[in-house]
Amino acid sequence: MSSWITFDQDVFRIATLHTSYLIRVTPYKHLEQIHYGGLVNAADAEALSLKRVVAYGNCINYNKKDDTYCLNVVPSFLL
């Protein structure tokens, strides 16, 4: 089985012949899962990522300057 790992513009892409896994480094240096499934390009990460446009009422803000960024809703890894 062949796989390819690339990293460009804060996006990791792990691909096999039939699947892709995209992981992005957020502006606050957290890892965010973007996609696992059919083949996609790393350039698709922005289109596939979670859009944050409104503040969440039940979250603790991570950064005072960005009230839309909340770690409770970042698709991340369970440790």
Structural commentary:
With 79 residues, the chain is mainly β. Helix content is 5%, strand content 29%. It has 1 helix and 4 strands; from the N terminus they run E-E-E-E-H. Strands 1-2-3-4 form a 4-stranded antiparallel sheet, with no helix packed on it. Strand 1 and strand 2 form a beta hairpin.
Per DSSP E runs of 2 or more residues, the count of β-strands stands at: 4
Kindly name the structural category: mainly beta
Helicity level, as a percent range? under 10%
Tell me about the largest β-sheet.
4 strands, antiparallel
Strand order of the largest sheet: 1-2-3-4
Task: Please trace the helix and strand order, writing H or E for each element.
Answer: EEEEH
Number of helices: 1
Radius of gyration, rounded?
Answer: 14 Å
Distance between the termini: 27 Å
Shape: elongated
Low-confidence stretches: none
Query: Beta fraction of the residues?
Result: 25-35%
Average pLDDT number: 83
In short:
The chain is mostly beta strands. Helices cover 5% and strands 29% of the residues.
What features would you highlight for this structure?
79 residues, mainly beta, four-stranded antiparallel sheet, 1 helix, 4 strands, 5% helix, elongated
Secondary structure blueprint with pairings:
Blueprint: E1 4-8, E2 11-15, E3 20-25, E4 31-37, H1 45-48
